[in-house]
Automatic annotation (TrEMBL):
The keyword DNA-binding belongs to this UniProt entry's keyword annotation: yes
Entry-linked InterPro entries: RNA_pol_sigma-70-like (IPR039425), RNA_pol_sigma-70_dom (IPR014284), RNA_pol_sigma-E_actinobac (IPR014325), RNA_pol_sigma70_r2 (IPR007627), RNA_pol_sigma70_r4_t2 (IPR013249), RNA_pol_sigma_r2 (IPR013325), RNA_pol_sigma_r3/r4-like (IPR013324), WH-like_DNA-bd_sf (IPR036388)
Family: Belongs to the sigma-70 factor family. ECF subfamily.
Keywords linked to the UniProt accession: DNA-binding, Sigma factor, Transcription, Transcription regulation
Span of domain RNA polymerase sigma-70 region: 18-78
CDD domains recorded: Sigma70_r4
Pfam families the record matches: Sigma70_r2, Sigma70_r4_2
The protein's name in its UniProt record: RNA polymerase sigma-70 factor (Sigma-E family)
Superkingdom of this protein's organism: Bacteria
RNA polymerase sigma factor 70 region 4 type domain boundaries: 103-154
Organism, scientific name: Kribbella pratensis
Length: 168
């Protein structure tokens, strides 16, 4: 194996799960997340000779993943059409309480717009600073702050609504 390929494989083995997790949280769909990461890693491999000299290749790759997730949202003809409820799927009530909460949060996260979702995921799940999030998203720190705040408000309202409707 060529040195370049070995380094890239090591990078993907170390960073792949985190990139997939970020893609899932930003896109809201596991299959879409896999496609996003695959596209981003393909592009990253082509640029690997330059990227491996960057001080933080993981940050570069994460930005590629977020941009790829945005790209799919901007070009709807490139993505599959999904339906809200799949027949024969077990309902949320059948899951253990921990899984139900997780599913509530993920469903609420899917209701956010792509920019708000990316801000919330990068700031609070990936635990990045406002400045790091702004750099990844290519926007100002003020935009990150406002989008994250609006996203959290929307998440809180959506989760509260789900809990109230379940209690009735």
């Amino acid at each position: 194996m060529v040195e370049r390929d070995r380094e890239f494989v090591e990078f993907v083995e170390g960073a792949g799960a985190a990139l997939r997790r970020t893609a899932f949280l930003v896109s809201g769909d596991r299959h879409r997340a896999d496609d996003v990461v695959q596209d981003a890693l393909y592009k990253l491999y082509l640029a690997w000779p330059k990227v491996r000299r960057v001080s933080n290749p993981f940050a570069y790759a994460r930005r590629m993943v977020v941009n790829a997730a945005y790209d799919g949202k901007r070009r709807p003809w490139r993505r599959e059409v999904t339906i809200a409820d799949v027949p024969d799927q077990v309902g949320y009530d059948d899951f253990a309480a921990g899984h139900a909460e997780r599913d509530e949060v993920l469903a609420a996260l899917r209701s956010l717009g792509p920019r708000q979702r990316a801000c919330v995921v990068l700031r609070y799940y990936e635990d990045l600073s406002v400045e790091q999030t702004a750099e990844i998203l290519g926007c100002s720190t003020g935009t990150v702050k406002s989008q994250a705040a609006r996203g959290l408000d929307t998440l809180r309202r959506a989760i509260d609504q789900r809990r109230v409707s379940r209690a009735l």
